[in-house]
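PROTEIN DESIGN WORKSHEET
SECTION A - STRUCTURE
LENGTH: 412
TOKENS:
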């Protein structure tokens, strides 16, 4: 009798999940479809350990206690230390619209981010959409937990190739990645302004590689790349769009990558800095006949590259704990050199053509703030502060949209 009752309860639960199908209106997908139900419970067992029991925070579920996807995700974000990011929160299908300009929204999953589905999708065919909390990020799948208005909590594994993959990931209060796999994340702005409006985000390369930026194909806009231990991966695509990636072997472990238009032909090519020695190539390949060496700077300097005189073509420079030393030639001669102070020890140097008038000027990145100046020899009186990024980010500069003038970005 007890066994029959338990079996009946299980059949009711399975039928409930089949009815919602992950809010799909169909039976749960199999692993072959890229979607697996790891846990389902007509209560809160699948979210055990979180303390969640249907609480409504931030006005989720219209302030009513009970099963709802927005209630659970709001609870988890609040538990992680987030404040309410916008008011009202709205239904799940409105979170990306309501959050636009207030939080970063992209296609990159991170532990602690919010997976969001629009209404009318495989996982959420109804009009209200769905949100879930990202618990695990692996190379080919994510695991999320959620609550549903069908009265069940779940843990789901969703593979990247699956039609059930989320439409967006919202980074209201990420808690970081688990040990192991992590993609490098790029966040690029088409305007030198605070905030995340107009930001293009993408995943490219492995975390730990050094991000680089260049106009690799000479077509007018900059694209991304990485350098690690002498290997370059260069993409000719705008982030978020398909394109060709090339691999270049140039340099060795311990080198600092540099990129510039060394010969003034309109496209950027690779180089490395090694304790005061620059090894520069006029092609994106290892070709000794197209490679030359420059002696400029000393061990411990940070290399910088720019078109300091606005005449076309890039030349070398170094940043030394707040002091800039720039050369208008590829030679160590004092002729054509500029030396000035801008920034503080610990700042990261950045260079760009901020006004699109040809010629690069200097800037620094300090704990999530860019200090941009329109003068080659930067002045604090001329500096424009732009808050973008966070402590630990690598500052990036490029003409991402090809519309003249450089704008900021970060690699993470």
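SECTION B - SEQUENCE
RESIDUE ASSIGNMENT:
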């Amino acid at each position: 009798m007890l066994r029959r009752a338990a079996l009946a309860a299980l059949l009711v639960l399975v039928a409930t999940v089949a009815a919602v199908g992950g809010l799909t209106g169909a039976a749960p997908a199999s692993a072959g479809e890229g979607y697996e139900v790891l846990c389902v419970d007509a209560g809160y067992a699948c979210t055990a350990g979180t303390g969640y029991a249907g609480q409504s925070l931030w006005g989720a579920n219209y302030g009513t206690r009970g099963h709802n996807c927005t209630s659970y995700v709001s609870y988890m974000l609040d538990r992680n230390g987030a404040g309410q990011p916008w008011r009202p929160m709205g239904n799940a299908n409105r979170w990306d619209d309501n959050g636009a300009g207030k939080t970063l929204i992209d296609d990159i999953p991170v532990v602690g981010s919010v997976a969001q589905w629009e209404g009318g999708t495989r996982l959420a065919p109804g009009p209200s959409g769905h949100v879930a909390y990202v618990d695990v990020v692996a190379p080919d799948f994510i695991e999320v937990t959620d609550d549903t208005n069908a009265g069940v909590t779940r843990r789901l594994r969703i593979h990247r190739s699956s039609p059930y993959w989320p439409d967006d990931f919202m980074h209201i209060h990420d808690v970081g990645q688990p040990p192991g796999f992590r993609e490098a994340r790029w966040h690029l702005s088409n305007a030198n302004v605070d905030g995340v409006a107009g930001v293009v985000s993408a995943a490219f390369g492995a975390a730990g590689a050094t991000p680089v930026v260049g106009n690799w194909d000479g077509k007018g806009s900059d694209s991304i790349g990485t350098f690690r231990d002498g290997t370059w991966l260069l993409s000719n695509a705008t982030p978020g769009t398909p394109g060709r990636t090339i691999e270049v072997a140039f340099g060795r472990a311990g080198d600092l990558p540099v990129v510039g238009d060394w010969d003034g032909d309109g496209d950027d090519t690779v180089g490395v800095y090694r304790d005061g020695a620059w090894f520069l190539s006029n092609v994106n390949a290892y070709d000794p006949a197209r490679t030359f060496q420059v002696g400029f700077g000393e061990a411990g300097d940070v290399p910088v590259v720019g078109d300091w005189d606005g005449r076309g073509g890039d030349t070398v420079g170094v940043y030394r704990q707040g002091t800039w030393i720039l050369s208008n030639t590829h030679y160590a001669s004092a002729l054509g050199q500029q030396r000035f102070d801008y920034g503080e020890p610990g700042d990261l140097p950045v260079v760009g053509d901020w006004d699109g008038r040809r010629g690069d000027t200097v800037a620094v990145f300090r704990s999530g703030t860019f200090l941009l100046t329109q003068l080659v020899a930067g002045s604090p009186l001329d500096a424009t502060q732009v808050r973008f990024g966070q402590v630990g980010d690598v500052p990036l500069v490029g003409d991402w949209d090809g519309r003249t003038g450089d704008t900021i970005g970060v690699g993470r």
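SECTION C - NOTES
Helices lie at 2-20, 69-79, 95-99.
The CA atoms of residues 17 and 325 lie 66 Å apart.
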